[in-house]
Amino acid sequence: MTQRIREFLRNRREDGPCMVLDLEVVRDNYMKFASALPDTRVFYAVKANPAPEVLHMLATLGSCFDTASVQEIEMALAAGATADRISFGNTIKKERDIARALALGVRLFAVDCQAEVDKIARAASAADIDDAKVFCRVLCDGAGAEWPLSRKFGCDPQMAPDVLEHAYRQGLEAYGVSFHVGSQQGNTEAWDSALAMAADVFRACGERGIILSMVNLGGGFPTKYLKDVPAVEAYGNSIFNALRRHFGNRIPETIIEPGRGMVGNAGLIETEVVLVSKKSEADEVRWVYLDIGKFGGLAETMDESIRYPIRSERDHEGEKAPCILAGPTCDSADVLYEKQPYMLPVSIEIGDKLLIEGAGAYTTTYSAVAFNGFPPLKSYVI
Q1: What is the reported pLDDT for 148?
Q2: Is 171 helix (H, G, I), strand (E, B) or coil?
Q3: What EC number(s) would the UniProt record show (predicted)?
């Protein structure tokens, strides 16, 4: 917790759980990414935290933006980004949204099948636009990631040249390849096999007379939760070495899409203990119910994939015991950590405050609906 956040929490008016994010930490993270891969453009993944203050500061610093919807495109533009610094990175887009993005000046689009290429080609043709670019996302196994991504996005690498050739034949620029090695990726070498696949797609397209220009290295850069993670510089060195290994001296243009790694460690959540109970007199494990749960912003505790550091104002009091953590809603799925309980002070009481650290990413955005009437998570950017 930064001193700025500590002061804010000390002086804030009590109004339920909240996420507080320190912009200075985000600034520092951006500079580290820009330094670690100096020849790579940074496309911040807006979905991680779309707070206007975050987007404006990053736009001022020169960041580009990875967006998943027209609404995110408009957020990036409102923050000061120009359209040439925006990628429509979702492979699942309505044709009218593609048309709107093109009208706003966006020219860079992700695809993973020929049907998606057709939508972009039709929208571009209708608008008499001849400079739209597409990159094809290929499947990646995500081994080593704490939040692996599914088969929902991407195609088999063997299929990618056909998709890109189809784009080329439709009058679009077949621009490059993308992949994602899985969110919260702790293995700095995870990009090696993915870049080998990307190089194969480059060669296959080259044999068809189609020269690709760009590799989108995706996100996956971690933030610190309970375990230490490698420094951004370690990822940069590993990625550069893999690029040299698989592309030789003809290294393509590259972009990265950090989200969690950009804002995760910049924010924390303050939450209140609502109830402490046991299910039986003989039960050695207590249930600690908080005023925030999966539906209030902690969706990434699903399957206990993301384990946040949790601090108590009673940590200094000594003895701790295992606790199951749960949210306040009337839904039995709203249990955060049961398979592997958390150790919390035995003296913890109703009304105590807990601090959930590393909560700057994917918390306010997952808390979008007032389920059971509990309001969405309040967010403060300082």
Answers
A1: 65
A2: coil
A3: 4.1.1.17
pLDDT of residue 116: 98
Is residue 304 located within the same domain as residue 223? no
Distance (Å, whole) CA 246 – CA 227: 31
Average pLDDT in the 276-296 region? Answer: 95
- The residue length of the chain stands at 382
Q: For residue 287, what are the domain limits?
A: 265-381
* Cβ burial 160-175 (10 Å sphere, 16+ → b, else e): bbbbbbbbbebebbbb
Extract the runs of DSSP E, i.e. beta strands, from 37-151: 40-45, 64-67, 86-88, 108-111, 133-137, 145-147
Q: What backbone torsions phi and psi does residue 135 show, to the nearest 5 degrees?
A: -125, 145
Instruction: Please tell me the number of Cα atoms within 13 Å of 90 on its side-chain side.
Output: 16
Q: How confident is the model at residue 82 (pLDDT cuts 50, 70, 90)?
A: very high
Residue 64, classed as helix, strand or coil, is strand
Sign of the CA dihedral 326, 270, 275, 347?
positive
Q: Taking the model in full, what pTM does it have?
A: 0.95
Q: Which one of 224, 258, 292 terminates a domain? A: 258
Residues with active-site annotation: 330
Mean model confidence pLDDT for the chain? 95
